[in-house]
Amino acid sequence: MPIVESTVRVPVDPSTAFAVSQTTGETRLRWDPFIRGQRFADGAREPAKGVRTLTRHRLGFVMTSEYVSFAPPSNVGMKMIGGPWFFANFAGGWRFVAVAGQPDATDAVWRYSFRCRPAWLAPLLERIGTRVLQRDIDRRIAGFARGCEDPEVLAVVRAPAPDA
Q1: Could you tell me the maximum CA-CA distance found in the chain, to the nearest angstrom?
Q2: Measured between alpha carbons, how far is 111 from 115 in angstroms, rounded to an integer?
Q3: pTM recorded for the entire structure
Q4: pLDDT tens-digit profile of 46-84?
Q5: Which domain holds residue 41?
Q6: 99 and 107 in contact (C-beta within 8 Å)?
Q7: Domain for residue 164, yes or no?
């Protein structure tokens, strides 16, 4: 199964980095070049294991994903439930690790794994997909890093909870 991965060090603690990665709406669009829109499905209001999201890629592809793990502030994982015809399966995982001796630094590691279809064309599609997705994940994590320095994004994730 092909895997693509990208890593970046961001100047925030792991809780803040995790929170930035889980932003939605206009806040998400400020930093995430991968998507044109994203929302929770089935009436969910926040991310959690089992929650589904609907994501529209910047090129128009639509994917329904489900959180398979949600462990703030260290990691989150999702798998595709439905999506573009050429993916037999697709999953993504994000991990956030504190940098030793640097309280306001986090290493963020994002990884995708996927399998293409139809089976007879998968070897070619997966070679192409690896290149395309590597470019996408590199751009996406660079956008995430910008989000971790964006005062507007940080204000949203650091704001007190509505019932606090």
Answers
A1: 55
A2: 14
A3: 0.92
A4: 899 999 999 998 888 999 999 999 999 999 999 999 999
A5: 3-158
A6: yes
A7: no
